[in-house]
Design brief:
803 residues; alpha+beta; five-stranded antiparallel sheet; 21 helices; 29% helix
Length: 803
């Protein structure tokens, strides 16, 4: 056996918690049972059970899409896969109530089935929860005693029974929430609202550095003085412990107050911050995620220039970029709402700026969990087989690597994030919790907590961004420059170039932090080489993500379903199903039965990157119903929520209304057509500076010969004879031609008027002998010249009309 084969055999294969299809599994397909004999890329070789029939080769997608497809266990029964819990139903519920509901969810599942939700395959239930040897009441009593001993909850076995029956009825985590926590609460609690408002003003002045820096106690002292000066003794300020809780409820940490420039200061030289050192030894042990501006101008989807924002995830152990998402970054539109006589909007509303959003963070997580596929137009060198990754071993474990790019697949164990709006919402955190990923927020205004990804951004800007033709740099003067005669890449084209650069340049560039700590003379490793060395020890974990898993990573909204369908963001969505028991028909004009923040509404998943369709979850049937925008045929092509906002603004500027959905769809189609054609004048493209709108196009200047002159005063003109007032001053009295077009007769007897003094002297010369015309009078000389002209031959060079 060769060394290469030994290295392949040593590769450890781990199983995903949701399971994958491997060789030897028994499946059911098209009414028959088969055994998986082999996997070849995206094809599966099936051998019939108990017969001499020929093996069948079928595509994996066709196999999984069959209606009767199922993986069978040893007894021939379908294997039930663990369902991704719907933690989005806990939105709007206090944190302690949501955590308690999740703990009750684990408890009732163990009481009902004997095993907790995350039990390993083949695990046996504990004796006190074994359904084969215990009754339900015995399990209720055991769980109540366990909750009291472990969590300190004083609950009876009747409470455990009630929780189990609620969960079996609705099968949602929201049914286990304590309803007392969903009651309406005031922002300031029992504290007077005027005290909370004064506290918000003081905190805002601290953040804007209008007041001198102060700690929490000094801030509370200023609060008492301000309340006493404004309202007198009638309004009481609570004690300091209550003010600390109120400050935390308002979203401000008392430790963030003070004069430290970089955020919190340490209490002393021996104190240690509550964060570990930024180091890792295995892939996924520590992953850092952050966003930055790439300083590049691109052509946005609306045909206008826009800046680009990059959000990427970096593995600290291997320095690999495991996922990257680019999004356009466009400023807010300046403008005010103007109300018309009918109460409607006649002006364009204020539109939010566009940048990376929370849905992009979930997309980043989905990219990190699966191999990056090869895109159309990618170079052959980008393929994983052309890199230093263990391609053959990874392709044998995960067939998706056969069409994957050279980017490692690393499942994060711990993710460090910042406090940006990208990670707002519970969907990202609940998905990380289900996958076993811990999330740790970095300290505010402290870049050292995620220094690896910050340094990676600097390398991307120096090695990739500055080579793009529309790179503006971080200099504010260059950032506002005008792009003259340069082609602007589209966002999709820039994303393709960035993904190829990551696979070709970054993953194959030796990194100084990846040197051998035991031998300084060995060369530095590349991120791909470091990943290949670590995956042979740690192993590879393939995680298959289904359609439902991707939908649970999208943003959540709660809507109602009317007779016409779903009304969401000024658009109507419907499903063409006519069966009253399928599609959206069971949900029309029917409350969902959910309480709390939902108030009887239905759970909806959507994406701002493709508003042409949404997905409604029917929790009674436990299925997702896809609804399509009813006017999608008018647009006929994909669009984004940002494009919809632009079309709606243009429609409002023309005097339309928000409710005119079909007219907005037509305006959107026209906008997409103009964006596809590109700008009409390509010689000069004006780039906005990010703060002001583009100046209007100036009309072409027209020449006016009377510009700047005073009006004509006719009283100053000389008086003209009465007969000349009606005559045209530009008409000639005598054109020299008669009406018949013949030559005018010459009066030889009449002497001509001399035009100058020389002609007058020539006319007055005395008569003499005729020699070369000398001594001739004027009439005789004219006759002689005319006779000479008449005798000129017709073929001469003179004008024939004079002959």
């Amino acid at each position: 056996m060769t060394a290469d084969a030994v290295e392949r055999v040593s590769l450890v294969v781990r199983r995903a918690p949701r399971g994958v299809l491997v060789r030897g599994d028994r499946v059911r397909w098209r009414g028959s049972r088969y055994t998986v004999a082999g996997l070849d890329g995206v094809s599966v070789l099936l051998a019939p059970d108990g017969g001499d029939q020929t093996p069948v080769s079928v595509l994996l997608a066709m196999l999984a899409a069959a209606a009767d497809f199922a993986v069978l266990d040893e007894t021939g029964q379908p294997v039930t896969q663990a369902e991704l819990p719907d933690f989005a139903a806990l939105e709007g519920i206090p944190e302690h109530a949501a955590q308690a509901a999740q703990q009750w969810w684990r408890a009732v599942i163990e009481v009902d089935t004997g095993l907790p939700p995350d039990a390993a395959p083949g695990a046996r239930p504990r004796p006190m929860y074994d359904p084969a040897t215990t009754t339900l009441i015995e399990r209720y009593q055991a769980k109540a005693a366990e909750l009291h001993a472990v969590l300190g909850w004083s609950v009876s076995w009747q409470t455990v029974q009630a929780k189990r029956l609620k969960y079996r009825k609705k099968r949602t985590v929201a049914s286990l929430v304590d309803r007392r926590s969903t009651r309406g609460q005031r922002l300031y609690g029992l504290t007077d609202s005027r005290v909370g408002e004064q506290l918000l003003v003081l905190v805002d002045r601290q953040r804007r550095r209008l007041d001198a820096p102060s700690d929490a106690r000094k801030l509370f002292k200023q609060l008492r003085q301000a309340v006493r000066a404004a309202y007198g003794e009638s309004v009481k300020v609570p004690a300091e412990p209550t003010l600390y809780k109120l400050l935390q409820r308002l979203g401000t940490d008392a430790r963030d107050l003070g004069g430290g420039r970089g955020g919190r200061r340490l209490a002393g030289p021996g104190s240690v911050p509550p964060f570990s050192v930024t180091s890792a030894t295995m892939p996924g042990e520590l992953v850092q995620i952050d966003s930055t501006d790439l300083d590049i101008w691109v052509l946005g989807d609306d045909g206008q220039p826009a800046r680009v924002e990059l959000t990427c995830a970096v593995c600290v152990a291997t320095r690999s970029i495991i996922a990257a998402v680019v999004r356009p970054k466009q400023p807010r539109r300046q403008g005010k709402r103007r109300k018309g006589g009918q109460g409607g909007l006649v002006g364009a509303p204020r539109r939010r700026g566009r940048a990376t959003k929370a849905v992009d963070a979930c997309e980043l997580l989905a990219q990190a969990l699966v191999p990056a596929p090869m895109r159309p137009g990618f170079d052959a060198a980008v393929h994983a087989s052309a890199s230093t990754l263990p391609y053959e071993e990874l392709a044998a474990v995960d067939a998706r690597f056969a069409q994957a790019a050279a980017r490692p697949v690393i499942i994060p164990d711990l993710i460090v994030i910042d406090h940006g709006t990208v990670f707002a919402g519970r969907t990202f955190f609940d998905a990380c919790e289900y996958l076993g990923i811990s999330v740790r927020p970095a300290r505010k205004r402290t870049g050292q907590d995620k220094s690896i990804v910050e340094r990676t951004f600097g390398s991307i800007k120096s090695m990739f961004s500055q080579h793009v033709n529309t790179y503006a740099g971080r200099d504010p003067v260059r950032a506002r420059r005008t792009v003259d005669g340069e082609r602007l890449w589209t966002l999709a084209e820039l994303d393709d170039m960035l993904q190829q650069w990551i696979a070709l340049e970054w993953q194959n560039k030796p990194h100084p932090e990846l040197a051998d700590p035991y031998d300084a003379y060995l060369p530095e490793l590349t991120p791909n080489e470091m990943y290949a060395a670590c995956v042979a020890v740690e192993g590879y974990l393939p995680i298959p993500l289904t359609r439902d898993d991707y939908l649970r990573l999208l943003p959540t909204a709660w809507v109602g379903v009317g007779p016409q369908g779903i009304r969401f963001k000024n658009r109507t969505y419907d499903h063409p199903e006519r069966d009253p028991h399928k599609g959206l028909n069971p949900c029309r004009n029917t409350p969902s039965g959910l309480r709390g923040k939902r108030k009887g509404r239905w759970e909806l998943r959507y994406t701002p990157n493709d508003p042409s369709r949404v997905w409604l979850r029917d929790h009674y049937r436990n299925e997702w119903v896809e609804a399509t925008w009813v006017h999608q045929h008018v647009v006929g092509q994909p669009f984004t929520q940002f494009m919809w906002d632009i079309a709606a603004s243009q429609h409002l500027e023309r005097g339309g209304r928000v409710a005119e959905e079909e007219a907005i769809a037509q305006a959107l189609a026209e906008l997409l057509e103009r964006a596809a054609r590109g700008p009409e004048v390509t010689a000069r493209v004006q780039v906005p500076d990010g703060y002001t709108r583009l100046p209007p196009v100036a009309p072409p200047a027209e020449f006016d010969p009377y510009a700047g002159r005073a009006p004509l005063d006719r009283s100053q003109l000389p008086a003209a004879p009465p007969g000349e007032l009606e005559a045209d001053p530009l008409v000639l009295d005598d054109t020299g031609l008669n009406a018949a077009g013949e030559a005018a007769a010459i009066d030889w007897e009449r002497g001509p008027v001399a035009p100058d003094a020389a002609l007058a002297a020539w006319e007055g010369a005395p008569p003499g002998p005729v020699e070369d015309g000398a001594g001739e009078d004027l009439a005789a000389r004219y006759r002689r010249i005319i006779a000479e002209i008449s005798q000129t031959p017709a073929d001469s060079d003179d004008d024939p009309d004079l002959a």
